[in-house]
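Render this sequence as a predicted structure.
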Amino acid sequence: MTWIHYLALIAAGFGAGYINTLAGSGSLLTLPLLIFLGLPAPVANGTNRVAILLQNVVGVSSFHRREVLDFRAGAWLAVPAILGSLAGARIAVELNEAVMRTTIGVLMLVMAGVIVVRPKRWLEGREDHHQGRPTWPQFLAFFAVGAYGGFIQAGVGIFLLAGLVLGAGFDLVRANAVKVFIVLCFTVFALGVFVLHDQVRWDLGLVLALGNMAGAWVAARMAVERGTRFVRWVLVAVVVASGIALLLGVGR
């Protein structure tokens, strides 16, 4: 490893932290780089979680200071996501993800169409989104998203946003805040699975985290200051790019 490699990790981490905080799929930047630097894919997947964890500590703190984070709703929805992430991470240490990536890529492109065609639903949210415990459909949906997040991480933020906006009624800015909190919660458990299987390079993960944390801080500030319309167009661009990248196999 040279100083150029470390700079590349920090730069990729910044981009990933920014994208993850405003939308999702930032790991499509970091996973290929970690693999390029010589890590086996499972170890790259586990190492990336170190940066994701610290990135979301910064994101949660930033959204909380700006008073847009609903901790109560996030805590309820984090429960099924945590359970799902444990299952997904356990599968990830052994299973090839090619078929899942293709399926997710197609779903992302479909989602991009939904965001463009029905913008009002994503921009305004609903007044009745504070409902306490999740319904069974919400529980199953967030369990499934958590399982995907535990499995591969890349793209999980986009599916969490879909669940929070379309299923729970948040607008995009508040949904991003809750999303960051949920990812923080389940990443603790998913990372633990990778640690137990000795699939984490802590030195590279911590260097990557420097960039992720900086990107998350900038993105949280921009999300609140520029509002839902700005976040929506970032989300559209990321969803389209992520869907194409997954279909082309970037990061395998």
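Summary. Residues 176 and 220 are 9 Å apart (CA to CA). The mean pLDDT is 82.
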